[in-house]
Amino acid sequence: MMTPLAPTMPPNPAPSETAAARPAQSKTGQTDWPAESLQDLLAQLKQAESEAVANATANTSPKRLVEPAAPDLGKVNVITVMSSKGGVGKSTIAANLAAGLTQLGRSVLVVDLDPQNALIHHLQPQSPRPVEDAASGIANASESASDWRSLCVATAAGPALLPHGLIEENERQAFEQHLDSDRYWLGRHLEAMGLADGAVVILDTPPGPSPYLRQALAITHQAIVVSLPDAASYTALPLAEKLIRSYVGERDDFKGCRYVINQVDRSRQLNRDVSLIMQQTLGERLVGMIHRDQSVSDALAYNRTAVEQEAHGQGFQDLVRFAETLMGQLPCASEGSATL
Ligand SMILES: Nc1ncnc2c1ncn2[C@@H]1O[C@H](COP(=O)(O)OP(=O)(O)OP(=O)(O)O)[C@@H](O)[C@H]1O
Ligand SMILES: [Mg+2]
């Protein structure tokens, strides 16, 4: 006999109280996966969203209205770089992909959605005021700064960069609550920028579930999951896929996820074996395999990307090839010279 399902959802939860909206990291730094099933989380998210819309509509201030409709980004390609685990090379890959696609003729905007604010150190700002550039960004811009173009930083490698900006802990908490309550905050700001058809937007995210990843996946067309060739990363891959399904929802314009294995060390048997298993499991969805290369991490000290460096190292060459592979899979730009 089937046991009736016990109700798992408290009545009328506030958006910030849902399991999916709770901070993903415990105090010990370990990911706190919600105990609820994915279906329960989706139901909670849906309910929280409709309540957020209802609350915003009830508010008399028009500035606080939440738009339920998905933003229209036209023919812009949005790519999210993500991972279940931290320190796997997301920011390195996002910066190098942005630089590589720029060199191949695409207009690229790279957005740092991680409070670590690290991307500005990968992509050297072309500015006489680099200190101020490092501190200001999308997280500390006033909501009235509706056009994010004024926040864009030109970089030595070519792509335009929207830094996250440096914020205090209490500001981060308030910012994340805001992101939780306004699903299309990022999408609306990008829409307001009026990016050219064919432009590419690359979103760098923190590891694991977060309000930042949720914002990114609400509008992304393609997710790039970065993994190391080790057992822990391999076992975390299904979690990444679950997260994608949960955050993307039902969207026809989402073209699925691709995988990159980073920091491959062929001198290690386990690295070779896990890489092979991933290759066999993922097939064509594995779009890049990047070797561990000391000069890749050294480049960070000089704010350089692979395309700016003399790309002799295997890791640099892999990064350049990865950008070429992805370029071949992107829808064509209507005009090759489209600018942001
Ligand atoms: N192919 C590579 N070879 C050698 N070192 C690498 C390679 N890729 C990344 N690294 C180094 O690994 C470290 C972590 O990289 P990165 O900051 O890009 O990871 P991340 O996934 O963005 O981290 P986080 O989860 O904290 O955002 C950096 O020191 C970087 O230089
Ligand atoms: Mg990072």
**Looking at CATH, which topology would you report?**
Rossmann fold
Please state how the strands of the largest beta sheet are arranged side by side. Answer: 3-4-2-5-1-6-7-8
CATH superfamily: P-loop containing nucleotide triphosphate hydrolases
Q: Helicity, in percent? A: 25-40%
Number of helices: 11
Mean pLDDT: 82
User: What is the level-2 CATH architecture name?
Assistant: 3-Layer(aba) Sandwich
Number of domains: 1
Structural category:
alpha/beta
* CATH class type: Alpha Beta
Terminal Cα span: 61 Å
Radius of gyration: 20 Å
Low-confidence stretches: 1-31, 60-64
Strand content: 5-15%
Order of helices and strands: HEHEHHEEHHEHEHEHEHH
How is the main sheet built?
A: 8 strands, mixed
Number of strands: 8
Bulk shape: globular
Can you walk me through this structure?
This is Cellulose biosynthesis protein BcsQ. InterPro entries: Cellulose_synthase_operon_BcsQ, DNA_Partitioning_ATPase, P-loop_NTPase. It comes from Stutzerimonas chloritidismutans. Residues 1-33 are annotated as: Disordered. With 340 residues, the chain is α/β, with parallel strands linked by helices. It has a single domain, classed as Rossmann fold (3-Layer(aba) Sandwich), CATH 3.40.50.300. Helix content is 38%, strand content 12%. Strands 3-4-2-5-1-6-7-8 form an 8-stranded mixed beta sheet, sandwiched between helices. Helix 2 packs across helix 11 (314-329) and helix 5 packs parallel to helix 7. The chain is globular, with a radius of gyration of 20 Å. The chain starts with 37 loop residues before the first helix and ends in an 11-residue tail after the last helix. The model is unreliable at 1-31 and 60-64 (pLDDT under 50). Residues 83, 86-92, 114, 116, 118, 206-207, 262-263, 290, 292-293, 296-297, 300, 315 line the site of adenosine-5'-triphosphate.
